[in-house]
């Protein structure tokens, strides 16, 4: 009995050791094309941006790493559960809130016009020289123009609004600015991407650059692209924000994570978004 | 409940004598009745417990839903198309609320 137990222990130790270096069981899907509603062709593979300097041979949307069933959910707006959030966001867009008696629509009119392309350039340096995510712009409008309360990061209401804004950029190329005034933020985001965190000493790159396509235990690693956020995550059964996923990833390295909406995550968001330059904006995506 | 919103998709064109695929989704929390709030009190069950579809005055689907069904229940099914155009969908909620939607088939 004793030998048996020992053998089993050794076997599981071996499994742990190969967890990261193990055979690639499911690389990104070789030829799937993301066509939403049979009309909108979304680019899910691209040549890497010059700044990546050959770190990866090709860039892939996280969509290509998911199962056939999950991928098909995103090809049909009726089946895409994130569209419920988009609808709720649309309702909120037209709802008057706050002391100023205004709705989003009072200033911005039809989101299909005014918000087109907005998500594709986020996060972005604002007029005061601060790096802002879509959420910051929404909340600034709420507190300054509508005189309403700011929404909590990753709350259903805020994610729904960001989802509604993101959908207006669906199929448009990711177009974040990384030079000029954005450069110092981008550089710090890049440093963070390659910094190892937590007891497991994993950086973003450990999984999403060096080992995408592999399995880390039961998780199929993607390149960690964020062009599909806010994303409906089946595991959580709701829309989640980019920063929520960042926080979860860093927590999973057994580190003390950063707060959603923190400056660190805005900078990381900018850098990770820039790794997706070449892909199209997918928001709102469906993932596992 | 204010956040109950049915969504229905019929085929763009229907043909008599052929099956038509119907997709329905209703936004609903589907509270199981098993959860407790922060004070330890049970949150009462609030689910859609029955969903029906009538076509041409005839019941073509009548299903019972239970507490294990996920939020925002999605139901997809086929019906045989005859002469009638009107399809009536009804969702029954715990507590007696009923939500009805009527859609017209267009024949191609």
UniProtKB/TrEMBL annotation, chain A:
Heme c 1 binds at residues 104, 107-108, 141. Residues 84-169 form the Cytochrome c domain. Its main location: periplasm. One of its GO terms (molecular function) is metal ion binding. Residues 1-26 form the signal peptide. The keyword Metal-binding applies. It holds the Pfam family SoxA-TsdA_cyt-c. One of its GO terms (biological process) is sulfur oxidation. The keyword Transport applies. It catalyses: S-sulfanyl-L-cysteinyl-[SoxY protein] + thiosulfate + 2 Fe(III)-[cytochrome c] = S-(2-sulfodisulfanyl)-L-cysteinyl-[SoxY protein] + 2 Fe(II)-[cytochrome c] + 2 H(+); L-cysteinyl-[SoxY protein] + thiosulfate + 2 Fe(III)-[cytochrome c] = S-sulfosulfanyl-L-cysteinyl-[SoxY protein] + 2 Fe(II)-[cytochrome c] + 2 H(+). Its EC number is 2.8.5.2. Binds 2 heme groups per subunit. Substrate binds at residue 245. It is found in: Periplasm. Heme c 2 binds at residues 204, 207-208, 249. One of its GO terms (cellular component) is periplasmic space. Keywords: Electron transport, Heme, Iron, Metal-binding, Oxidoreductase, Periplasm, Signal, Transferase, Transport. InterPro entries: Cyt_c-like_dom, Cyt_c-like_dom_sf, SoxA. The active site is at 249 (cysteine persulfide intermediate). It comes from the Bacteria. Its cofactor is heme; heme c. Belongs to the SoxA family. Heterodimer of SoxA and SoxX. This is SoxAX cytochrome complex subunit A. The lineage of its organism: Bacteria, Pseudomonadati, Pseudomonadota, Alphaproteobacteria, Rhodobacterales.
Automatic annotation (TrEMBL), chain B:
Pfam families: SoxZ. Residues 8-102 form the Sulphur oxidation protein SoxZ domain. This is Sulphur oxidation protein SoxZ domain-containing protein. It comes from Roseinatronobacter ekhonensis.
């Amino acid at each position: 009995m004793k030998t048996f137990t020992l053998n089993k222990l050794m076997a599981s130790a071996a499994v742990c050791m190969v967890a990261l270096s193990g055979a690639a069981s499911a690389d990104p899907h070789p030829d799937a094309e993301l066509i939403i509603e049979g009309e909108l062709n979304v680019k899910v593979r691209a040549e890497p941006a010059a700044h990546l300097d050959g770190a990866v041979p090709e860039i892939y949307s996280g969509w290509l790493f998911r199962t056939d069933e999950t991928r098909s959910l995103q090809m049909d707006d009726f089946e895409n559960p994130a569209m419920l959030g988009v609808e709720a966001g649309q309702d909120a867009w037209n709802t008057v809130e706050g002391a100023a008696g205004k709705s989003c629509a009072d200033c911005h009119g039809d989101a299909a016009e005014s918000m087109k392309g907005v998500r594709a350039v986020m996060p972005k340096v604002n007029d005061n020289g601060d790096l802002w995510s879509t959420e910051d712009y929404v909340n600034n409008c709420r507190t300054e123009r509508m005189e309403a309360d700011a929404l909590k990061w990753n709350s259903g209401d805020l994610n729904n609004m960001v989802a509604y804004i993101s959908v207006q950029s669906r199929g448009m190329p990711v177009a974040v600015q990384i030079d000029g005034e954005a450069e110092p933020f981008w550089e710090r985001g890049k440093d963070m991407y390659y910094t190892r965190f937590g007891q497991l000493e994993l950086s973003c790159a450990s999984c999403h650059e060096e080992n995408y396509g592999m399995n880390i235990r039961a998780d199929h690693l993607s390149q960690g692209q964020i062009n599909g956020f806010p994303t409906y995550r089946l595991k959580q059964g709701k829309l989640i924000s980019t920063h929520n996923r960042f926080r979860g990833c860093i927590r999973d390295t057994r580190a003390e994570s950063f707060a959603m909406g923190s400056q660190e995550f805005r900078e990381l968001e900018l850098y990770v978004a820039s790794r997706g330059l070449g892909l199209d904006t997918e928001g709102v995506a469906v993932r596992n | 409940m204010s956040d109950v919103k049915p969504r229905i998709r019929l085929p763009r064109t229907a043909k008599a004598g052929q099956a038509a695929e119907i997709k329905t989704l209703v936004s609903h929390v589907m509270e199981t009745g098993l959860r407790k709030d922060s004070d330890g009190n049970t949150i009462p069950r609030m689910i859609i417990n029955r969903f029906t579809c009538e076509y041409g005055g005839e019941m073509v689907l009548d299903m019972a839903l239970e507490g294990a069904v996920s939020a925002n229940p999605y139901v997809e099914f086929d019906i045989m198309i005859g002469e009638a155009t009107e399809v009536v969908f009804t969702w029954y909620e715990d507590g007696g609320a009923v939500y009805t939607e009527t859609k017209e088939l267009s024949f191609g």
